[in-house]
């Protein structure tokens, strides 16, 4: 079981506390309630999940504005917060980062492979110095060209990576590319450098078609963490996709069945709209179904 999202949970908590920017990961550097609530979110997930993640997804905007040093400081602060939340618990630790642009759901804005390779080199270099990080998890990628650039940059840096794609209900990338063809292309060009591939921030309905139709690439899909909503992710902004589960046990049953049918899935969880209760229900449902 993977940690759930920080952003949507902290945004909900911010509404309760009257702190509109509580979910802004850069605010962690101010300490106080921003650090306390981030740590509390991680502790809540740590009680029910096996794989911890950092809250660094949105920090890549600092790189686009040229604030490399601030980016590094913020990443290190989030890494420190997760370690404090774990308090010595033995968990796998993934460093979760995002794609080049904020418009994660707009394939037309995706960079070329070469542009992505150059941009993500800094994210990889920063991750390389973080204690205990097993892998860098690149989330919410929607074109094979950006994924290819990430894979090539990772191979040069020697950093282990997992590439996580957004898919639609038919199991295709938002660019319209087939998942199997995209994986085959990236593996051919990078010497199969990525540890594996994942699916996230997507309707749960698309996961099984994507896996079922991946042909010879099926074993390369090792993770899945869909949204709580079945809506196309292009219909809501990444910062306000808070459509909560009407019944946590429904998603638990759906993902539990998928995990049982596809034993190559190494980690499963939830993305936008999930909270601690939902992740706990998923954990119970999946582990009891093994």
What does this protein look like?
It contains ten helices and seven strands. It has 290 residues and is an alpha/beta fold. It has a single domain (7-288), classed as TIM Barrel. The protein is globular and about 50 Å long. It starts with 6 loop residues before the first helix and ends with a helix. The relative contact order is 0.13.
Tell the overall outline: globular
Q: What's the helix count?
A: 10
Radius of gyration: 17 Å
| Assembly state (oligomeric) | single chain
- Beta-strand content estimate: 5-15%
Number of strands: 7
- Proportion of residues in helical segments: 40-55%
The CATH H-level homologous superfamily: Homocysteine-binding-like domain
Mean pLDDT, all residues: 90
Order of helices and strands: HHEHHEHEHEHEHEHEH
Level-2 CATH architecture? Alpha-Beta Barrel
Q: Biggest β-sheet: count, sense, barrel?
A: 7 strands, parallel
Q: CATH topology, which one?
A: TIM Barrel
**CATH class term:** Alpha Beta
Give the CA-CA distance, first to last residue: 13 Å
Order of strands in the sheet with most strands: 1-2-3-4-5-6-7
Structural domain tally: 1
Coarse structural class: alpha/beta
- Uncertain segments: none
Notable traits:
single chain; 290 residues; alpha/beta; TIM Barrel; seven-stranded parallel sheet; 7 strands
């Amino acid at each position: 079981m993977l940690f759930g999202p920080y952003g949507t949970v902290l945004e909900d908590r911010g509404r309760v506390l009257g702190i509109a920017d509580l979910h802004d990961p850069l605010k962690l550097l101010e300490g106080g309630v921003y650090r306390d609530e981030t740590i509390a979110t991680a502790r809540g997930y740590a009680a029910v999940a096996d794989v911890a993640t950092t809250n660094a997804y949105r920090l890549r905007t600092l790189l686009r504005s040229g604030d490399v040093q601030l980016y590094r400081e913020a990443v290190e602060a989030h890494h420190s917060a997760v370690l404090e939340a774990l308090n010595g618990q033995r968990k796998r630790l993934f460093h979760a980062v995002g794609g080049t642009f904020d418009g994660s759901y707009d394939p037309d804005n995706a960079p070329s492979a070469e542009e992505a390779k150059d941009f993500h080199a800094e994210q990889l270099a920063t991750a390389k110095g973080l204690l205990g990080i097993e892998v860098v998890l690149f989330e919410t990628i929607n074109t094979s060209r950006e994924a290819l650039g990430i894979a090539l940059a990772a191979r040069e840096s020697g950093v282990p990576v997992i590439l996580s794609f957004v898919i639609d209900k038919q199991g295709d990338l938002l660019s319209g590319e087939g998942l199997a063809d995209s994986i085959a292309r990236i593996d051919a060009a990078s010497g199969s450098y990525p540890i594996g591939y994942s699916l996230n921030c997507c309707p749960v309905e698309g996961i099984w078609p994507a896996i079922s139709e991946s042909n010879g690439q099926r074993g390369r899909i090792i993770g899945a963490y869909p949204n709580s909503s079945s809506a196309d992710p292009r219909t809501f902004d990444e910062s306000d996709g808070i459509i909560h589960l009407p019944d946590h046990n429904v998603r638990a049953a759906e993902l539990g069945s998928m995990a049982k049918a596809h034993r190559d899935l190494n980690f499963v969880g939830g993305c936008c709209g999930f909270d601690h209760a939902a992740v706990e229900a998923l954990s119970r449902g999946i582990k009891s179904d093994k």
